[in-house]
Write a structure and sequence with these properties.
Blueprint lengths: L6 E7 L5 E7 L1 H7 L3 H13 L1 E8 L2 E7 L9 H5 L2 E3 L5 E3 L4 E7 L6 E2 L2 E2 L2 E6 L4 H15 L13 H31 L2 H14 L2 H9 L5 H30 L4 H10 L13
Antiparallel strand pairs: 1-10, 2-7, 3-4, 5-6, 8-9
Length: about 280
């Protein structure tokens, strides 16, 4: 995926286990000093983790009051190993004499969704539209990556949302155009005028892709919504133009004369039809 133009910030999203300081009790040493394993564990818990001594009640809530060593006596490996235990003989034995310390990686976080484990690969798309970038990545991954048995790929995130939006737009746009056509036919009672206004809508949308190209803006769902708004404005302008021309024709003026007068006359003439210029 790193070879695909537009892919940035590529990486695996995972939470790696943090290093843990583990103390294993040396049972031979503990027996030699006469100290129980439980006493050693209790000493570590008291020094580092804290033990509850009593409880405090506030209203109906109860809170444990815990006690542990001060920070300077428990925040380093050397400090923890210096914790002293009292042997039956009266001697004080350090934790380093009773345990074996090691630093190991803790458990990593395992992500699950829908009852299945998953490994998330994160990336960003910059300087290119999302759809073509991800589709090129899908083609390259499918052609060059052989997954082990039991694994499968799902392209989710913003790309999945865009695909759902595209499917909805594929239904919304034709339905919208059909609804506009029916409204125009109801208004003019003529397939000719309704079709003419829809043709002007198609011609008006030419400037949209040109504006995206000039500004370097990638086509997106927001752009598609803007095109729908443009269709509405184009229909409004077309309705005003056709209605004004028809009014001139009703005064027994020819088509060419009516069209020329519509173009020459000031645009404030359209105020009577509810459009402010």
């Amino acid at each position: 995926m790193s070879t695909v133009k537009g892919i940035e910030d590529l990486g695996i999203f995972r939470i790696v286990g943090q290093p843990n300081l583990n103390y294993t009790v040396d049972r031979d040493a503990a027996a030699r000093w006469g100290i129980n394993v439980a006493d050693i564990q209790d000493a570590v818990q008291t020094a580092v983790g804290a033990n509850a001594l009593t409880q405090v009640q506030q209203g109906e809530a109860r809170y444990d009051v815990t006690l542990r060593y001060q920070k300077q006596y428990r925040d380093t490996r050397e400090a923890i190993e210096s914790v002293r235990l009292l042997a039956p003989s009266g001697e004080r034995v350090s934790l380093a004499q009773l345990t074996k310390a090691s630093t190991d990686d803790g458990a990593e976080q395992i992500n699950r969704e829908g009852g299945q484990r998953y490994i998330a690969i994160k990336y960003s798309v910059r300087g290119r539209d999302l759809g073509s970038t991800v589709e090129e990545a899908i083609a390259k991954v499918n052609g060059k990556v052989a997954l082990p048995a039991g694994y499968h790929l799902e392209w989710a995130g913003e790309y999945e949302s865009q695909k759902r939006a595209d499917k909805r737009m594929a239904i919304v746009v034709p339905v919208t155009v059909l609804a506009i056509f029916l409204i125009l036919y109801t208004m003019f009672r003529s397939y000719k005028w309704a079709t003419l206004i829809l043709i002007t809508v198609g011609m008006a949308s030419i400037g949209g892709p040109l504006a995206l190209f000039i500004t370097g803006t990638n086509f997106s769902v927001s752009s598609a919504v803007g095109f729908l708004a443009l269709f509405g404005v184009s229909v409004e302008t077309g309705v005003i133009m056709v209605e004004f021309i028809n009014q001139l024709r009703s005064r027994r003026k020819g088509m060419e004369e009516s069209t020329e007068e519509h173009i020459v006359k000031p645009q404030w003439r359209a105020l009577s039809f509810g459009c402010v210029r």
